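Support request from a user on the community tier.

User writes: "When I paste my C-alpha cells into the form, the page sometimes reloads and wipes my input. The last time it worked, I copied everything first. Here is what I submitted, just in case something in the input itself triggers the reload:"
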C-alpha cells in the first residue's frame, strides 16, 4: 500500500475499503501533490478519501479540505464529580439544544475578529451527520504523569464536542468551485489568498461554535469547565515550505489529541510522538472511520434493532438522538474497531496512549 508518494498507516489487522485506497491514490495524482498519507481510519468519501493528509509545495485544493472547514473536536474537563454524576437526571436536563443560541452573537464574533455578517442561527449548535456533544468519564489512566501534568483529574467528568463551521464552510467551498471547479490554485495567486483568508475565518468560527456549544451544555447541568484541547480535522495549513491539507485527520503538531471511537466504543486521549511524525505528515486518525455507508447502516441494522435498542450502548451509555434515520446511520456497528486504529498508530510509533475515556451521554439531537 506504499509507494514514493502514497503511504498508508495500517497493519494486517486493519480493514480499509479498496475504494478508499483507490481514492487516495487518485487524489495523489493531482497537480502539485507531492505526498499523500492515509491514516488507519481511512474510508471513502465523495470523490476523495476521509482520514487522509496531502502535502503540496505549490498548490492548494479547497475540495480536499471539504465543505466543513474547521470541523474538529474540543475537550473540556468539568467540575462535575464522577461519583456524584446522576446519569438519568442529566439526560432529562439536556434538551432544546438544537434551537438557536440566544446569546450576544455580535460581541462573540467581534472577539475573534469576524464581521457581523458571519452571524446566523447555526452559531452554538451541533449540526447533523457525525457531530455530537458527549459527556465522558475516565475509564483508566495509562500514563499518570502526563495525564496529571496536563491538569487532568480522573474524578472529573469530561465533555467532548465535535462540530464545525456548519453552512459557512459549505458556502466558501461552493464559491470556490463555482470559479475553479476542483482545480487547485497556485499558492502565489490572488485566488489562494482569498481562499486562505476565508478559510481562516471559518476556522475561527468553528472553534467559537464549539466553545458556545460547550457553554450551553454546561449551563444545563450547572457546571463549569476548563478547555483542555481544541483540534481541527479539516484544514489547510503551512507546513515545511508547502501546504498540508487534512481531510478527517487530527494534527500531530498541536499537543494532546483525543481520538474517539463510536458512541458505543472508548475514546483515547493520546500524545503524539515527534520522532516518526513526518511518516504520517504530522497527522493522526481522527476517529474509528466508517465501516458502512449511511444507507447500508440503516438497511443492515433496521432488520435487527429498533429505536430503543440504539438509545443505550453496550458500555452503559445513553444516546440522545430522536432523528430515527440518524440514530441508525451513526450506530456503533457502522464504524470500524477503534482499538485496531489506536494500535496501528502505536505500532507505527506515532502516539502514546495517555488515558481511555468512556462515553456516558452522547447528544446528537432532540426531536424538532
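"...and here is what came back when it finally went through:"
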Amino acid at each position: 500500500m506504499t509507494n514514493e508518494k502514497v503511504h498508508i498507516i495500517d497493519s494486517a489487522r486493519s480493514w480499509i475499503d479498496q475504494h478508499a485506497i483507490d481514492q487516495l491514490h487518485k487524489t495523489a495524482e493531482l497537480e502539485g501533490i507531492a505526498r499523500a498519507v492515509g491514516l488507519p481510519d481511512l474510508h471513502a468519501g465523495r470523490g476523495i478519501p476521509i482520514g487522509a493528509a496531502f502535502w503540496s509545495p505549490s498548490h492548494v485544493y479547497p475540495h480536499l479540505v471539504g465543505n466543513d472547514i474547521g470541523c474538529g473536536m474540543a475537550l473540556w474537563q468539568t467540575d462535575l464529580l464522577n461519583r456524584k454524576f446522576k446519569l438519568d437526571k442529566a439526560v432529562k436536563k439536556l434538551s432544546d439544544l438544537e434551537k438557536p443560541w440566544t446569546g450576544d452573537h455580535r460581541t462573540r464574533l467581534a472577539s475573534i475578529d469576524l464581521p457581523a455578517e458571519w452571524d446566523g442561527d447555526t452559531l452554538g449548535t451541533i449540526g447533523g451527520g457525525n457531530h455530537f456533544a458527549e459527556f465522558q468519564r475516565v475509564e483508566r489512566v495509562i500514563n499518570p504523569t502526563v495525564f496529571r501534568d496536563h491538569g487532568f483529574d480522573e474524578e472529573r467528568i469530561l465533555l467532548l464536542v465535535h462540530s464545525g463551521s456548519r453552512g459557512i464552510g459549505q458556502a466558501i467551498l461552493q464559491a470556490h468551485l463555482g470559479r475553479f471547479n476542483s482545480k487547485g490554485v497556485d499558492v502565489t495567486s490572488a485566488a489562494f489568498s482569498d481562499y486562505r483568508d476565508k478559510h481562516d475565518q471559518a476556522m475561527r468560527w468553528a472553534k467559537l461554535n464549539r466553545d458556545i456549544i460547550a457553554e450551553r451544555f454546561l449551563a444545563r447541568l450547572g457546571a463549569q469547565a476548563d478547555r483542555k484541547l481544541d483540534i481541527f480535522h479539516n484544514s489547510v495549513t503551512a507546513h515545511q515550505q508547502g501546504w498540508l491539507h487534512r481531510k478527517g485527520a487530527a494534527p500531530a503538531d498541536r499537543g494532546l489529541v483525543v481520538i474517539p471511537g463510536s458512541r458505543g466504543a472508548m475514546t483515547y486521549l493520546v500524545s503524539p510522538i515527534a520522532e516518526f511524525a513526518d511518516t504520517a505528515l504530522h497527522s493522526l486518525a481522527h476517529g474509528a472511520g466508517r465501516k458502512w455507508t449511511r444507507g447500508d447502516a440503516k438497511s443492515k441494522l433496521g432488520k435487527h434493532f429498533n429505536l430503543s435498542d440504539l438509545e443505550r450502548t453496550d458500555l452503559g451509555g445513553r444516546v440522545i438522538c430522536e432523528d430515527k434515520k440518524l440514530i441508525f446511520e451513526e450506530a456503533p456497528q457502522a464504524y470500524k474497531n477503534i482499538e485496531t486504529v489506536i494500535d496501528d498508530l502505536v505500532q507505527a510509533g506515532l502516539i502514546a496512549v495517555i488515558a481511555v475515556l468512556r462515553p456516558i451521554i452522547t447528544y446528537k439531537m432532540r426531536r424538532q
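Agent notes: The reload is a front-end session timeout and is unrelated to the input. The chain has one domain: 67-231+251-365. The chain is about 30% helix and 30% strand. Escalated to web team.
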